[in-house]
Design brief:
Helix content: 40-55%
Shape: globular
CATH superfamily of the largest domain: Aminoglycoside phosphotransferase (APH), C-terminal lobe
Number of domains: 2
Strand content: 5-15%
């Protein structure tokens, strides 16, 4: 690459680290990806070899969890990037390159969908079974965290995106809903939770498929959370019957491996759907916040899919029916206009 933009001091510093400290002078650095955090990724090419460099500004991102969870996952035998060099003071990591074939881009390929999901579910069961012994020291997906996540929705989605003024009665309904969903999550058997296990964080790899990314926020929490992240993906949707079949196949896979589920098929699907509702309530808030706070508009186009997941799950249970009614009467009438305003 040429000289970095003079205004991008982080990239200039990263380039010096790669070329001078690591001895990659004469190599090439190009952007690889950005994510919803403050992290950026660059691909370094030297001869026939490629590597990934993570740029995590220390005042905004801590590379410690990435290092510790990555080590944990390597110990479980799943395919994650290997740390080849690090400068934790400046927030730089040199990683092995797992490629560029995102699950999201290949799931629609004829005949590939079931195979790719089988691999992803197999890796998930490996993490969840290994997590039973190896991941107990991870942060807990506790009541406070579950509630804090859901509170993003009233602020960023209802108020800032839709411009809704929520009444006292509606606020009370939301508080009861959030408590119900938190208690459902806490009642499930706990295990390793990646926390963002979906098609943009999985890479199609020739060996040990899939390559797993973005695991630094892992916690010890509800067994269905990663399953619903994968199967009710915010970036791609499948027919309800197909999703339920995959979920129940995964339940059988866990039982066959000896995971102490203690749930009938109906109970497992209830866990799955209500944890999915908690996640998608959170995501409505996060995607809106990414636009209004961080200026990242690309996630707005996925809001309709997330809202459909939210409404469909809320309609399925008596204890969440009031929220489904709230979506129908208060959210959906404002949603299209809010999207048009934001995307204009």
């Amino acid at each position: 690459m040429g000289l970095p933009d003079a205004s991008d001091s982080r990239l200039a510093e990263l380039t010096r680290w790669v070329f001078d400290d690591l001895g990659f002078a004469g190599g090439r650095i190009v952007p690889a990806s950005v994510d919803a955090s403050f992290r950026r990724y660059f691909r370094v090419t030297r001869g026939e070899d490629t590597y990934i460099v993570m740029d995590a500004p220390p005042d905004k991102e801590d590379v410690g969890p990435f290092l510790s969870v990555g080590k944990l996952l390597l110990g479980m035998g799943v395919n994650v990037p290997v740390v080849l060099a690090k400068d934790t003071k400046h927030g730089f990591l040199l990683l092995s390159d797992l490629g560029q074939r995102q699950y999201l881009d290949e799931l629609g390929t004829e005949g590939a969908t079931d195979r790719l999901y089988a691999d992803a579910l197999g890796a998930l069961s490996t993490m969840q079974m290994g997590g039973a012994g190896m991941a107990r020291d991870l942060p807990r997906y506790d009541h406070a965290l579950l509630m804090r996540e859901m509170e993003l929705m009233p602020q960023w989605f209802l108020r800032d995106h839709l411009g809704l003024q929520v009444s006292a009665a509606e606020r009370g309904m939301l508080e009861r809903l959030f408590e119900t969903l938190a208690q459902c999550a806490l009642a499930q058997p706990a295990t390793f939770v990646h926390r963002d296990y979906h098609s943009r964080n999985l890479l199609v790899t020739a060996a040990d498929n899939p390559g797993i990314l973005d695991f630094q926020d892992a916690v010890w929490g509800p067994v269905t959370y990663d399953l619903v992240s994968l199967l009710k993906d915010c970036y791609i949707a499948w027919p309800v019957a197909r999703v339920r079949a995959w979920a129940l196949q995964y339940r059988e896979q866990l039982l066959a491996k000896g995971f102490p589920l203690g749930a009938t098929e109906a109970e497992f699907i209830r866990w799955f759907d209500l944890v999915g509702l908690q996640r998608h309530i959170k995501v409505l808030g996060i995607f809106a916040r990414l636009f209004y706070r961080d200026g990242k508009a690309q996630y707005l186009k996925d809001l309709p899919r997330v809202l459909r997941y939210t409404r469909d799950a809320a309609e399925g249970f008596a204890e969440t029916a009031q929220f489904a009614d709230f979506i129908a009467k208060r959210v959906e009438p404002e949603f299209l206009d809010a999207q048009e305003r934001a995307l204009a």
